[in-house]
Structure formats: structure tokens, C-alpha cells
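Students often ask why inverse folding is considered easier than folding. One informal answer: many sequences map to the same fold, so there is more than one right answer. In these notes we will look at a single instance of the problem. The structure comes first.
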């Protein structure tokens, strides 16, 4: 049953705890290069205090170490993780996968997390070039991830393990003016081919018999490229294919602010940046919507603020009070400006099941 904490209803689906915004990749589709806030690591005592307050008040179903950056790079990552598990908080880790094939991955085998999401994103050598990974080659990257997956899933079969893929079926032409061409998965055929290939690889890794071919191919054909696809290949093992997102128009300067719309910020999640800033949603990579800082007060104080009350009252009426929210959900051109808010309200509140599909590829 929902209850309130400050001006939000709890429990939320998740709270993003950004341990660091430092990353060892320079993906061209990520707004890392656009950040104006400083790079750094969350103070470990601040992280522990935030986790303890979240746990004591039952604020969310899980804490996710994610927003910007690679969380496993934090020098006290495991100390913070152990604190969260001691507080009996469900923990999700979102990682780019680069550290899983080394000492970090081996040590992670000591911890049974609720969920591990690997942002594989670029599942072949050609598209991996978009990650700007320096000396790290695609095959070494993939081998490290797959070795870790094999060991982790064997030890913790109840933990959810997701491989995230990026779908570029709908081109972001304005975004590509800054990034250059963005081509990863562009059709249903490509998506099905990738899923088929990696499903075979994972079944071989785990020494499992493949699903019946006729059933597998029939279910595979139901996957379409224009939806948010969650594809379950084994119990608790998924591929998740997202359409490329522009991070709230981060890559574009020619935006007309939204006059209305719908957002999940502070409704099913919010974020805490490494600096202690509390932001409205996981899309706020640059801390533009900070409503308070944990170095200056508790989460309860921040979430009880008059400013957040004003913002939440606006959300309830499908209006954006914060100027960054208006830009994030803004549009190009007059027609889009008129239609997009209506489509967002109807689509996210009513038609979401149509844009989301869960496909199970095993019996």
C-alpha cells in the first residue's frame, strides 16, 4: 500500500544512487561530454547515510547504483555495497561491463544482488567503435562479460541479469549532427539475429540444451523493433532492447519548451548525484533539477520542501513547473509542440503496454 514521505508516494520503484559520474568509456551516444558539473566520487559516509535513510523509511523497492558514470570505479564501491546489503536493501547494479572480467568482477561473485544490468548496448565489433574504449577491444570486452555472467548466474540463479541493447531504428538526425552516424540495431531482423546469436552463446556457456527450434523461432518472430523489448531467454535472464534516446534533448539547442506532458520523475524514481544533489529523475545527467543537497539536510527535509510540493502539484496537472523539465520534454516545430504532450500523457498512462513487449523464448 502506498504511503507518503514528504510530497512523494512511497515506495518508489527505485532510487538511483550515482556513486560517481566518472566513466572509463566515452560513448558518443552518452551526454558525458556535455556535462558541466564537476566529475567526482560520492563521499562514502554520505552514500551510507543516504542508504540508511532510504532503508529506514522504506522509500523504494530497490536502490540502483546508476545514473551517470561507472559505479564500480568508486574506490569504496564494495564497502558501500556491503552497507546496503547490511541494511537489507535490494540492490541493482548498472554497469558498462568493462570491469567484470577483472578483479572487480571476481570480487562481485561474493555478493548476491537483486539485479545486475550490463549495458552491452553495442553487441558487435562494428558498433562497439561507438564506445570509444581506447585499448579495450570488443572481444576482450565481451569475453569478460560472458565469463562473469556464467560464474554469477551459476552462483546466484535467483538474481535478475539483464543485457541491455541499443536500438537505433528511429534515427535521431539532430543528435547525429553532434555525434556522427549512430547505427547499432536498425530493424526487427537485426534484433532477432542478435538475440538468436547471444541466446545460443549463453546456452552453450551454461551447458544447456537449446529450446525447441520451432517454438524458439516462432516466438522470436514476434519481436518487433519499434517497441521496448524485454526478452527472457532463461528464468531471470533477459535481453532488454531500448530505442535510442536523446537524453531529454541534451544534444539539441533548437527546442520549444513543453506546455504539458507526463513524466515518471518522483513518481517511480528519483536520483541522488555523487555531489549529494537530489534530482527529479534519472534523465537529469547534469543536475539541472536539483531540489536540495544531502550535505545540507536529510532526504525527508528535501522531499518535504515547498519547491518539491510546487513541482509535484504541477505534475499532478500534467504541467512542468521546473524549466529543465519543460526543455527535457520539449519539441521541434509547432506541430510536434502541440501533439507531443498529449501523446506523452495518453501514451505513458494508457498505451504503455502497446509500446512494451515481454517475450519468453523458452518453455
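Output (designed amino acids):
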Amino acid at each position: 500500500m502506498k504511503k507518503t514521505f514528504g510530497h512523494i508516494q512511497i515506495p518508489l520503484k527505485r532510487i538511483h544512487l550515482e556513486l560517481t559520474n566518472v566513466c572509463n568509456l566515452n560513448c558518443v551516444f552518452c551526454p558525458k561530454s556535455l556535462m558541466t558539473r564537476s566529475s567526482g566520487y560520492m563521499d562514502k559516509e554520505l552514500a551510507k547515510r543516504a542508504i540508511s535513510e532510504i532503508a529506514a523509511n522504506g522509500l523504494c523497492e530497490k536502490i540502483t547504483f546508476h545514473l551517470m558514470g561507472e559505479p564500480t570505479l568508486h574506490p569504496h564501491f564494495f564497502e558501500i555495497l556491503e552497507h546496503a546489503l547490511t541494511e537489507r536493501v535490494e540492490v541493482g547494479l548498472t554497469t558498462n561491463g568493462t570491469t567484470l572480467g577483472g578483479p572487480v568482477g571476481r570480487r562481485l561473485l561474493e555478493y548476491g544482488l537483486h539485479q545486475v544490468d550490463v549495458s552491452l548496448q553495442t553487441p558487435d565489433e562494428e558498433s562497439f567503435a561507438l564506445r570509444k574504449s581506447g585499448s579495450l577491444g570488443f572481444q576482450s570486452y565481451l569475453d569478460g562479460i560472458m565469463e562473469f555472467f556464467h560464474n554469477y548466474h551459476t552462483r546466484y540463479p535467483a538474481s535478475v541479469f539483464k543485457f541491455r541493447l541499443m536500438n537505433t531504428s528511429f534515427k535521431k538526425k539532430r543528435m547525429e549532427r553532434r555525434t556522427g552516424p549512430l547505427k547499432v540495431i536498425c530493424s526487427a531482423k537485426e534484433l532477432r539475429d542478435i538475440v538468436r546469436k547471444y541466446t545460443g552463446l549463453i546456452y552453450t556457456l551454461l551447458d544447456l540444451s537449446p529450446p525447441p527450434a520451432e517454438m524458439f523461432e516462432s516466438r522470436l518472430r514476434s519481436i518487433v523493433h519499434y517497441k521496448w523489448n524485454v526478452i527472457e531467454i532463461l528464468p531471470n535472464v533477459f535481453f532488454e532492447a531500448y530505442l535510442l534516446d536523446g537524453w531529454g534533448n541534451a544534444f539539441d539547442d533548437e527546442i520549444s519548451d513543453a506546455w504539458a506532458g507526463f513524466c515518471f520523475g518522483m513518481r517511480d524514481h528519483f536520483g541522488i548525484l555523487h555531489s549529494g544533489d537530489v534530482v527529479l529523475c534519472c534523465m537529469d545527467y547534469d543536475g539541472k533539477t536539483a531540489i536540495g543537497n544531502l550535505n545540507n539536510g536529510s532526504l525527508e527535509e528535501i522531499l518535504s520542501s515547498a519547491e518539491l510540493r510546487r513541482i509535484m502539484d504541477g505534475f499532478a496537472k500534467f504541467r512542468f513547473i521546473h524549466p529543465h523539465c519543460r526543455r527535457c520534454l520539449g519539441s521541434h516545430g509547432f506541430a510536434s509542440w502541440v501533439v507531443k504532450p498529449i501523446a506523452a500523457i495518453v501514451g505513458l498512462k494508457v498505451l504503455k503496454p502497446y509500446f512494451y513487449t515481454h517475450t519468453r523464448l523458452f518453455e
